[in-house]
Amino acid sequence: MKLKKRIVLAYSGGLDTSIILKWLQENYNAEVICYTADIGQKIDRKKIISNAKKFGVKNIIINDLKDIFVKDYVYPMIRGHAIYEGVYLLGTSIARPLIAKDQIKVAKKYKAYAVSHGATGKGNDQVRFELGYHYFSPKIKIIAPWRIWKLKSRTDLISYAQKYDIQIPKDKKGEPPFSVDDNLFHTSTEGKVLENPKNSAPEFIFQRTTSPEKAPNKPTLVTIKFKNGDPIGVNGKRLKPSMLFEKLNKLAGKNGIGRVDLVENRFLGIKSRGVYETPGGTLLIHAHRAMESVTLDKETMHKKDNIMSRYAELIYNGYWYSKERFKLQKIVDHKKNKVNGSVKLKLYKGNITIQSRITNSEAYSMKKVSFEENKSFNKSNVEKFINFHKKKLRN
Q1: Do 166 and 256 lie in a common domain?
Q2: Catalytic one among 154, 179, 309, 361?
Q3: How far apart are CA 113 and CA 96, in angstroms?
Q4: Is there a catalytic annotation at residue 370?
């Protein structure tokens, strides 16, 4: 008996991917394997398994990638201080390359001829997933339902779900939900009332941050320890990557830190409005920059700043595995071994204040910076320095 062809579907167990699962079964003579990457999102394993089994799926894979996600994807990005268009910390963008890599790994294991995803035809994620698929398996077939099926809207999706008795989730108001993506690094919310930029974001959509108005009236102090450019501990306790992020998310979230409301320029040229929550990541960006300020020389820091915009754009556009991103990562990580020490932050009602920077590095010289007279800085050379740069004004 000839075995059916296999398709590996990136499956969340939610509305969209449950519909895609049924649609693939209807339109392709193939066995569908459901694959879920656990990268710290709200995940109900029993629900994922039961929803997939409802449609006769035999192979349901849920891989725990939380520590890999933080250590090999989020931390390198934090070291680069990657911020897209001045505000977005790239929480969704950085997750897709890892999911694509692991999904291809599953596809190879099960000898699948195709992979499928639930990214919409107008969004960035289809590009991010598919560039990742191509990097690890250039010849694999990619099935992107949103680009080929006849379901054109959320209304069509709900009608299809009702036809096949697929559960339709509700938001806190008892209505079909916003479009939400979450992982250990962030939560994004899009759609419905948010599509019109004149509308304020309703408070009930926020999932991991308290509003600054309702945050504690007493500041919270947080000390983050760094080694070789990466955080290794919080408040004196060494933590593995996923646990460290969970700790920072809670501390920052309760203090109203990490909210961003933005209209961004998608890779495909469409503008979109979304609300992002990145509490722990926001702390780390501030703390890492503070740590570098006392451990790295000016030339190294400024080289990093000069490439940051392009580095962030590459991640946003799905080019994590590109030669250009690899090249920029080398610049980002140059001298990262010198970034050691700890930074203390004060968190208060949405604000972050640097309280102290402690390091054994000699990059910051107390003697040279002191207002007291000392012999460690030769001021007689300053006039020569100015005269040299005067000549460059008209070059």
Answers
A1: no
A2: 179
A3: 21
A4: no
